[in-house]
Write a structure and sequence with these properties.
Blueprint: E1 2-9, E2 12-19, H1 20-32, H2 36-58, H3 61-77, H4 88-117, H5 137-144, H6 148-159, H7 164-171, H8 175-199
Antiparallel strand pairs: 1-2
């Protein structure tokens, strides 16, 4: 994506074409100089997008907000370690997804202790249904049932519309594995949503699942 940015010089102002990567790098150079205004601009650029993905990963708005907040905290704390050879967004999503996966692993451990150490009585955890979403409730529910590795690939590709290459870097798997996981996720969702999709014209296997389908 190309954006027009107004730059000032001694001779006045002029418009410069900048990519999203360049904009992020320009802001982050300022962040490394402790410019909090630039940091807040980065937060504003990515907060909702992170909530969109992490909210669906952990299926809890409150926990997603905590994870997103922790993500930006770590970004600032480790700002001097960022390598400008890479995309800021890739680094950011890597941090956020690692935190989300840690949270999901904690849940599994907690559930294990509930089952085996608490007289077989699971403690029910309240889940906030008000996840920010443009997805219909049926599709949202179906995404929630995907295994974590398929869910992550699907959300990054078909919801965030990231390239396969960027996703491969974020989740640290080969490019072919990313494509395989995305296709598998789409296949699972098609099977689950087949009755509804038949009502609204079945999807072609070669196209992205429209997230506003339902």
């Amino acid at each position: 994506m190309i954006c027009l940015i107004c730059k000032s010089t001694k001779r006045g102002y002029f418009m410069v074409k900048m990519t999203e990567k360049q904009i992020d790098h320009d802001l982050f150079h300022r962040v490394k100089d402790d410019d909090m205004k630039a940091f807040n601009e980065l937060v504003d650029r990515y907060r909702d997008r992170l909530m969109n993905v992490i909210g669906r990963m952990v299926n809890s708005r409150e926990e997603a907000e905590d994870i997103v907040q922790e993500t930006f905290l770590r970004v600032y704390q480790h700002r001097d370690s960022f390598d400008f050879k890479h995309c800021f967004s890739t680094w950011l999503y890597t941090i956020a997804l690692n935190l989300a996966r840690n949270e999901l692993r904690k849940r599994k451990k907690y559930k294990f202790f509930d089952i085996f150490d608490m007289q077989n009585k699971e403690v029910e955890t309240a889940v906030d249904p008000e996840i920010p979403s443009n997805l219909g409730p049926v599709l949202q529910e179906a995404i929630g049932t995907l295994p974590e590795k398929y869910k992550t690939a699907f959300l990054l590709r078909d919801v965030e519309e990231m390239s396969y290459e960027d996703i491969a870097r974020i989740i640290s798997v080969p490019l072919g594995t990313v494509k395989s996981r995305v296709n598998r996720a789409r296949s699972i969702l098609r099977d689950k949503l087949k009755p509804r999709m038949e009502e609204r014209n079945a999807l072609s296997k070669g196209t992205l699942l429209p997230v506003n389908l339902l």
